[in-house]
Design goal:
Largest sheet: none
Number of strands: 0
Mean pLDDT: 89
Low-confidence stretches: none
Order of helices and strands: HHHH
Length: about 140
């Protein structure tokens, strides 16, 4: 697959993920604004920070994926495994920092917000990865 096609696919993936992050953020905003979810379960600050974190992680991992796919195709499977592990570790580190700042009793909204974004991106990244591996290793 040519390098331009890989970059195009990566850009499309980033756009899809950004749309999903915005949709998840919009849903959580509506749920919290109209009190359809209790604030002890989810609140705006946690959702906003989780969305910003997700965008940052998306941009970094997609940029790295483009580089690996164009320069080191044989490491692509290893990269996907390592990036998934790194993403989980990074979320745990951020939640640990949040726990130190807000206290253990106020952690539930933060964990819910981060896990929703984490699983949405995990599913989208995995689908993208499977499709791209099938195209790249034909």
């Amino acid at each position: 697959m040519p390098e331009t096609e890989i970059k195009k696919q990566a850009s499309q993936h980033m756009l899809k993920c950004l749309i999903f992050i915005c949709v998840v953020r919009g849903i959580t905003m509506v749920l919290t604004k109209y009190h359809l979810l209790d604030e002890s379960l989810l609140h705006d600050k946690a959702c906003s920070i989780a969305a910003v974190f997700s965008v940052f992680e998306l941009v970094v991992l997609t940029t790295l994926w483009k580089w690996v796919a164009t320069k080191h195709l044989d490491f692509l499977v290893t990269f996907h495994t390592a990036s998934s592990s790194f993403r989980m570790l990074l979320v745990l580190i951020v939640l640990g920092i949040v726990c130190a700042v807000v206290g253990r009793d106020a952690m539930v909204p933060w964990v819910v917000a981060f896990m929703v974004n984490y699983f949405v991106l995990l599913i989208l990244h995995s689908i993208f990865f499977v499709k791209m591996v099938q195209k790249l290793f034909k």
